[in-house]
Write a structure and sequence with these properties.
Structural class of chain B: alpha/beta
Number of helices of chain A: 8
Number of domains of chain A: 1
Number of strands of chain A: 20
Distance between the termini of chain A: 37 Å
Number of helices of chain B: 8
Number of strands of chain B: 12
Strand content of chain A: 35-45%
Strand content of chain B: 25-35%
Largest sheet of chain B: 6 strands, mixed
Strand order of the largest sheet of chain B: 6-9-10-3-11-12
Shape of chain B: globular
Order of helices and strands of chain B: EEEHEEHEEHHEHEHEEEHH
Oligomer: heterotrimer
Strand order of the largest sheet of chain A: 2-1-5-8-10-12-14-16-18-20
Chains: A alpha/beta, B alpha/beta, C alpha/beta
Radius of gyration of chain B: 18 Å
Radius of gyration of chain A: 21 Å
Chain lengths: 400, 249, 481
């Protein structure tokens, strides 16, 4: 593990700025816990060997391309992971500031499983605080892209706050062409009766993408997460949603496609901390080639969180002889009057459906592509915005 | 149109059809009746080319072509249609999209031009109206969440749009109430044009009341044991399949 | 049958009726764990030198290991140096038959409902009775011998059938497997040995009854069942211990080997002392059970009803090596008061067309925590493997926990794995309906719980099913209201 410490976390690499004390504390925590390995329960299916073998450049990479999007949006471009603030034009109700010392000092990223978050705190280039009030008409797009010569490591940090009653769509578009590390830490808090649709569309090349999203959902607020992950050399996303007040609601939907030499690991956790909270989750992996997909979905209903309801479903397709899928849906329940269920399947395309389609004249290849597309599209069906849905469906159609 | 000669079909190594002969001419409607387990559905699946339904002997000629050589989609493009006894649910695949993809794939295979979406929608809407179905079903996933009756009617809609030369209807009447049954029969009769042929597989005679078959065959233990006119189906209805045992003995 | 009913009635009269202590002089080794103790155990059992060497190898390996901490359990530190690793009732001469066994011991097993002497034996069930570290005796040995079946204590097997023991010992659970398996391999005392020759259907149920009696001892039994090609056996295991304020450790290893077309059915009713309502005392049950479907078409089925122990850590597993081999796991685990259970199974699919089925029912009441932990692994070469898993949890009360941790790993695209889990409480409406029909709340709960567990109970041999049901009812006493 010391390989990663040497390449990413030597003392010399800590930026010398106003936050030096916080950075040193984070660095100390990181050294104390170390990076996770296969014996770390939360990392048992994901090896960091790819990263260990990498040297990270300190030379600045060339400018990365902006993703093309077929819908109107407010765009924040994180060029090679760094937000370009020059001609930022934010709509009314949206403000962006650097995080304060207090905000940064308040975090605790836990033990070894939180090593990358500690690394982020020790090494972040920018730490933004995004505040949203009222109803946003256009989606906010965070475009995080890297250039072909990106061999750096970058540690974007973001705090998102939705005021009571606010309503927003936040779309992260990750486009990677490089071979570095993008290590994102984001925290979001939804005020009372706020609504946030949070979408992550990721296309990774050789870079490792490690993302940790922690979300707090207050009374009657509604958080919807969707992801379309098109695979990458090494991708790990930890999404933790805490339902902290009654009436809070969360839905998590994701589709992951992996192919040759790709490895994507999603860990989600939904915590029902109080009663009268609801969640639903549906996650799908389609693994082809030598791809490896990992899904760990945890539902935790705390003591006293009576009258909470939760359903988690994961369906997965193994599409080739060499692909692998590991799924671990977990329930941890300490309350009464709850209903919680989960279902998990790993299999292949449905023979009966394939035959049915072929008997209607659709050739085998096209039939299996349609089936895959239908299977992969399910998590996006309840996105109200037609333009966003069409965009995702279009992307999917191209992929399968 | 369809010439089946001494057809033997095995499923999982077990012979289900044991030498079946059947000749269906252009424009004819034949009914195949038989008790459960006689091999009725096996015949449908074997003709449509389902994996695991192995033709071990005999021949099937469809419109001059040897069927056994063709993949399921090639059979469909050649004009063969099977209405499934249990239409399959396909989550995530839109019903209208599916049908259009099927139609265009068949047309492409035949060297015809694809239909544009306007023409396509017009055709589908007409059939949907004939079968008194809810147009909203077009926007849903294929057969997903459809009632039993809706699934069966959806098969007839597909048949109307795809315009096959030969349609095999596998127990399309099962699970339908009398009104739905009449609608399905109307849908079938509307497609009888003197050229298109039909093989109607059924356990009961009641659908045949509305269809006037040219021939009725009784399938038992993998063979056609008796053939006749409509009076045969009425006899079956009255006496049940018990008399088969006498015939066999 | 009458006898069984009476047994059940007795059980019902007392919450933990097995909690008595037999006052019998005991021959104990000193407390502590070191090479000398291991040599003493081996010497007392008059073991061949290869076995002592094996024990010592296991011990040395164990010294390099750490206690596992991944389970959802709070395990207080266990001082392994304070345990006496060998305790046996003092007997002047080795009894040659059951008639020579100390009447006090026979009486103990009588009281536990497992009479050993000829006139009262359970018909159709051969019993090996293990008291602390030794086997007291085995019934029906003659009848079994006629069928070619070997059923005896492990110690006897080491003496009489060393070649079989040597070939199979550790072949399913090597001593390197885990911390507790390594410990057991170093210090195991007694247990049962079963050998079913080829093409033989064992003429009766085989059963071992484990009893911990002495204070400050642990029980480290070792069971080995070998089913030769085409053979079939059903084996039952029961266990109890006196009520004590201190915790006692039970760390067993069970190995099953099923060869071509052989069938092994292994049932357990685990009723170790669970501790009192404040969580004081009780057995720590850390058990490694594994079956190896070593050749084609073998079948291994585990059924367990777990009501006892303060802590349960147990994952009866199947390695599905042979093509078309099949594994099953049926489990009811009930925890009450301050009990903790982390139990489940592993189904390792290696061969083609292998199938496995897992049905797990967890019931938590009081302040207890009950976890299902299961692994289904489909290896790359396991073409067409199939698994179906269902695990349901029932919560009774506001202060307990029910958890599900399934690990599903598939590396073969033709395999199909399905897992379903639900957690719910006993429905208000179900309870009300029962009560409106005149049942009191406790009876209503018992009835609902019984219904919840039915799928598992029907896998148990009849006598055990009745006992299991009664046990569950008793264990739930005071859970509602």
């Amino acid at each position: 593990m010391s390989a990663l410490i040497d390449s990413l976390a030597t003392e010399a690499r800590l930026p010398a700025d106003d936050h030096a004390a916080i950075r040193r504390r984070a660095h100390k925590a990181l050294l104390q816990h170390g990076f996770p390995d296969l014996k770390t329960e939360a990392w048992k299916y994901t090896s960091l060997r790819v990263l260990e073998k990498r040297a990270f450049s300190e030379q600045q990479a060339g400018a990365s391309a902006l993703p093309a999007l077929p819908f109107a949006a407010t765009l924040l471009h994180f060029d090679n992971g760094i937000l370009n603030v020059d001609d930022l034009d934010l709509p009314a109700g949206v403000s962006l500031q650097p995080q304060t010392e207090e905000q940064l000092a308040a975090v605790d990223h836990g033990d070894r499983a939180g090593a990358f978050a500690w690394l982020n705190l020790a090494r972040f280039e920018q730490a933004w605080h995004l505040q949203i009030e009222g109803h946003l008409e256009q989606p906010l797009v965070l475009a995080i892209s890297t250039a072909a010569d990106f061999q750096n490591d970058v540690h974007p940090r973001l705090l998102i706050e939705l005021a009571a009653g606010a309503r927003a769509e936040l779309i992260e578009v990750h486009e990677d062409r490089g071979e570095g590390l993008v290590n994102i830490v984001q925290d979001a808090a939804l005020g009372r009766a706020a609504f946030l649709r949070h979408l992550v569309s990721r296309q990774s090349a050789q870079s490792a993408w490690i993302q940790r999203s922690h979300v707090r959902v207050a009374r009657d607020a509604d958080y919807r997460f969707h992801t379309l992950d098109r695979g990458g050399r090494l991708t790990r996303h930890d999404l933790a949603v805490r339902l902290t007040e009654s009436g809070a609601h969360a839905e998590v939907d994701g589709t992951v496609l992996v192919n040759d030499r790709q490895h994507v690991d999603f860990h989600t956790a939904i915590d029902h901390e109080v009663g009268h909270t609801n969640s639903r989750e549906s996650f799908r992996i389609l693994a082809d080639g030598t791809g490896v997909g990992v899904f760990n979905g945890r539902i935790h209903i705390h003591r006293g969180a009576d009258d909470s309801h939760s359903d988690l479903n994961t369906a997965n397709l193994l599409l080739s002889e060499s692909a692998r899928i590991n799924a671990k849906p977990e329930l941890e329940i300490y309350a009464e009057e709850v209903t919680a269920s989960h279902g998990a399947t790993i299999g292949q395309l449905d023979d009966a459906a394939l035959f049915y389609m072929r008997s209607r004249g659709i050739p085998a290849d096209q039939a299996s592509a349609l089936l895959k597309q239908g299977f992969a599209a399910a998590p996006f069906e309840n996105i109200e915005s037609e333009s966003i849905r069409d965009w995702l469906m279009g992307e999917l159609a191209e992929l399968v | 149109m369809l010439k089946i000669n001494n057809l033997k079909v095995a499923v999982n190594g077990k012979e289900i059809l044991k030498g079946l002969d059947l000749n269906v001419g252009p424009g004819e409607l034949h009914a195949i009746m038989g008790p459960n387990g006689s091999g009725k559905s096996t015949l449908g699946y074997a003709l449509a080319g389902r994996d695991g339904y192995e033709m071990t002997d005999g021949s099937v000629e469809f419109d001059g072509q040897d069927l056994s050589e063709l993949e399921p989609e090639e059979r469909a493009a050649a004009g063969l249609f099977l209405a499934f006894q249990y239409p399959v649910e396909i989550p995530g695949v839109n019903n209208a999209y599916f049908l259009r993809a099927a139609l265009n794939a068949q047309r492409k295979a035949r060297g015809e031009e694809e239909v544009d979406s306007m023409t396509f929608l017009k055709t589908v809407r007409e059939s949907i109206k004939t079968l008194k179905m809810d147009e909203a079903l077009l926007k849903r996933a294929v057969n997903e969440g459809f009632s039993g009756g809706e699934k069966k009617r959806n098969e007839i809609v597909q048949m109307a749009v795809l315009q096959p030369k030969l349609a095999i209807l596998d127990e399309t009447d099962s699970g339908l109430d009398i009104d739905a049954l009449k609608l399905v029969a109307e849908g079938i009769n509307g497609l009888r044009d003197g050229k298109r042929s039909f093989v109607v597989i059924t356990h009961y005679q009641r659908l045949l009341d509305y269809l006037t078959p040219d021939r009725v065959h009784v399938l038992s233990d993998g063979r056609i044991v008796e053939s006749g006119g409509q009076e045969l189906s009425q006899r079956l209805e009255a006496e049940g399949y018990a008399f088969l045992e006498e015939t066999a003995a | 049958m009458n006898q069984t009913v009476e047994q059940v009635n007795q059980v019902i009269q007392q919450r933990y009726k097995a909690g008595f202590y037999t006052d019998i002089e005991s021959d104990r080794v000193r407390a502590g764990l070191d090479e000398e103790i291991i040599a003493m155990i081996s010497a007392k059992k008059e073991e061949p030198s290869w076995l002592l060497e094996w024990r010592l190898k296991a011990f040395h390996h164990w010294q390099t290991m750490r206690e596992p901490n991944w389970a959802h359990l709070k395990v207080p530190a266990i001082d392994l140096q304070k345990i006496h690793y060998y305790a046996a009732p003092k007997q002047k001469n080795r009894p040659k038959s059951l008639d020579e066994v100390d009447p006090k011991l026979l009486e103990t097993f009588d009281k536990l409902g497992v009479p050993l002497h000829e006139r009262a034996r359970l018909a159709g069930v051969a019993v090996d009775a293990v008291f602390d570290s030794v086997s007291v005796g085995t019934t029906f040995q003659k009848e079994l011998k006629e069928a070619g079946v070997i059923f005896c204590s492990f110690s006897e097997a080491v003496k009489e059938h060393p070649e079989l023991v040597r070939e199979y010992l550790g072949s399913v659970v090597p001593f390197t497997d885990n911390y507790f398996a390594a410990l057991n391999s170093a210090v195991f005392s007694d247990g049962s040995f079963v050998y079913i020759p080829a093409n033989t259907r064992c003429p009766m149920e085989l059963s071992t009854y484990f009893r911990i009696n002495a204070r400050d001892t642990g029980q480290f039994e070792r069971t080995l069942i070998i089913a030769e090609p085409g053979s079939e056996v059903s084996y039952l295991e029961g266990c109890t211990a006196p009520m004590r304020d201190e915790n006692q450790l039970h760390a067993a290893v069970v190995e099953l080997v099923a060869r071509k077309k052989a069938k092994i059915k292994y049932s357990t009713v685990q009723n170790w002392y669970p501790g009192d309502e404040n969580g004081k005392g009780g057995i720590y049950n850390f058990v490694t059970k594994r079956g190896d479907c070593r050749e084609d078409d073998a079948r291994i089925s585990w059924t367990q009803v777990e009501t006892g122990s303060a802590i349960t850590w147990k994952y009866p597993s199947c390695i599905l090596r042979g093509d078309r081999s099949a594994g099953e796991f049926y489990s009811v685990a009930l925890t009450h008061n301050h009990q903790q259970a982390d139990t489940g199974t592993k189904m390792i699919h290696l061969g083609k067309d292998t199938t496995s089925k897992i049905i797990s029912k967890g019931i938590s009441a009081g302040h207890s925590n009950n976890s299902y932990r299961g692994l289904v692994r489909i290896a790359k070469r396991a073409e067409n493997a199939r698994n179906y898993t269902q695990c349901d949890s029932l919560l009774i009360g506001k202060t307990c926990g029910a958890h599900t941790f399934p690990y599903i790993e598939s590396a073969n695209s033709t395999a199909k794995v399905e897992h379903e889990a639900t957690t719910s409480r006993i429905g208000e409406d179900q309870l009300f309906y029962c009560r409106a029909r005149g049942l009191d709340e406790e009876d209503a709960v018992a009835m609902i719980v019984d219904g919840f567990c039915k799928e598992v109970f029907k896998e148990l041999p009849m006598e055990f099913a009745v006992e299991a049901k009664a046990l569950l009812e008793i264990s739930l006493e005071g859970a509602v209201g």
